[in-house]
Every structure is written in structure tokens, then in C-alpha cells.
Amino acid sequence: MNLVGTFVQFATAPVRAGLAVADLGLNIATGSLKVVRRSLDDPGAVGNATSFAAMLGIDDAVDRANRLARLMDDDAPLGRALAPEGPLNQLLRPGGLVDQLTAPGGLLDRLNAENGPVARALAKDGLIDQVTAEGGLVDRLTADGGVVTRVIAPGGLADRLLAEDGVVDRALREDGVADQLLAENGPVGRALSRGGLVDQVTAEGGLIDRLTTDSGALSRVIAPGGLADQLLADDGLIERILREDGVVDTLLAEGGLLDTLTDPDGPLLKLADVA
């Protein structure tokens, strides 16, 4: 009797069982990937593999992958934005907007300087402290019944904007507003082209330079006693806008201006149709 062989087989049985399970797992994963690939290459294939995808619990994942793939088609707005010569490529190209913003001495350097706008905003009792203080702007916006709560409530502004055939849906459809903005010679392309609006705004001595200098508009806005202080003061403009029965309440009230604008027969949807 081969006791050594029997002992080896007994000792290695758990390992062999583990390898068998791992092999089965790999086969299932391979099958799942094939289903996803077929669904991306041929949307009609999803229906043929429904039972298999459902058995693996990936039918929702396949559906989401299909939707994502359609968004990134060459003729879809997102696909055009990601194209080799699309807006994203223009933003990230050498010497493009991102390079200009992050270059030594560029906008980010000036904003983050020791006495720059960001440092002043983050200083004790500065703009950020005022906005995030207890009872401050963020508290009022996110309180129960506040602006944010009402906007994201079921049936609220966000639901109406994102509804099927709503403003966002119409803006993103083929030949909609997004298509026109991202077209080859559309506003976004012209703004991002060399020498275009973005170049002019971010150039040395341009608008952003002038806004962020020590005596520029942004510095004056966040200086002590400046516009930001006045807006955030007790009984200041923001306080009056956000208080009960203020401007925001009027806008978000049932039958108010936003209800009128986002109504299925309202001006926003008509404008999206015209565009």
C-alpha cells in the first residue's frame, strides 16, 4: 500500500478543491465579460443573453454599460468632447488652458499666494468661516425645508429638470443645445481655440490677472468689510433672499416661477425645442 501517495493526496485535497473553485470562478467571470462585450458591440445581443446575465446578477450592470457606451459614441456629445481634437483635448494639450492655469506664476500660484484671495478666504473669520458657521449660509441652504432640500425633493426642481423629455434630456439629445455648443465651429470650440476667449481671459495681464491682483476686484470683494461681508451680514442680501417668504421661497413655491419655467408646456422646454 502506497502510504506516502495516499498521505500526499489527502494533504493536497484542500488545495486541489480550492483550485477547482477558482477555475470555476474564472470561467463564470469569463462568461460575464463575454456577455458585456457582446452587449457593447451589439445592443441586440443583450436580449439573447438575458437569462444568462440575470442568472449571474449582472443584467443591470450590462444595461448601465450599454447606456455609458451610447453616451460615448463618436456622434454623441460626450464622445465628441473626448475626441482627439475635441474640447477636452484642447484643454489638456501642451500650452492649453490647464497648462496656463498650473504654470509657475500662473493663476493657481497667484490664488494660493501667502496673502492671495484663497489665503484670505480661509483665514479665521474669513469668507469660508462665515459661510460654514453655525446658522450661516450652508446651514440655511441645507436645513429641513431649505433651498437644497426643496430642490432635490421628489417632484422638485431636480426631478423636473432630469425627467424623461425634460430640459436636460432635450438639451442632450441629438441636434440639441449640447450638440450645437460642442459642434466643430460651435461656441465651445471657438472659445477654446488658440487665441480665443479662454486664451484672452487667462493670458498674462488678462482679465483673471487683473481680478486677482492685490487691489483687484476679487481681493476687494473678500476684504474685511467688502462685498462678501456685506452679502453675508445679518439682514444682508443673502439673509433677505433665504428668509421665510423671501425670494427663494417665492421661486420654489408651488405654482411659483420655477414651476412655471419647468412645466412641460413652459418656456424652458420650448426654448430647448427651438434650439
> What is the β-strand count?
0
Oligomer: single chain
Structural class: mainly alpha
Low-confidence stretches: 1-8, 10-15
Helical content, roughly? 55-70%
- For the termini, the CA-CA separation is 87 Å
User: Mean pLDDT, as a whole number?
Assistant: 72
SSE pattern, N- to C-terminal = HHHHHHHHHHHHHHHHHHHHHHHH
Radius of gyration: 28 Å
Strand content: under 5%
* Morphology call: globular
Structure description:
The longest helix has 39 residues. This protein has a domain of 71 residues. It starts with a helix and ends with a helix. The chain has 24 helices and no strands. It has 275 residues and is an all-alpha fold. It is 67% helix and 0% strand.
What are the SSEs and their pairings?
Layout: H1 3-41, H2 45-48, H3 50-56, H4 59-71, H5 77-82, H6 87-92, H7 97-102, H8 107-111, H9 117-122, H10 127-132, H11 137-142, H12 147-152, H13 157-162, H14 167-172, H15 177-182, H16 187-192, H17 197-202, H18 207-212, H19 217-222, H20 227-232, H21 237-242, H22 247-252, H23 257-262, H24 267-274
Helix pairs in contact: 1-4
Descriptors for this entry?
single chain; 275 residues; mainly alpha; 24 helices; disordered N terminus
In short:
The chain has 275 residues and is an all-alpha fold. Helices cover 67% and strands 0% of the residues.
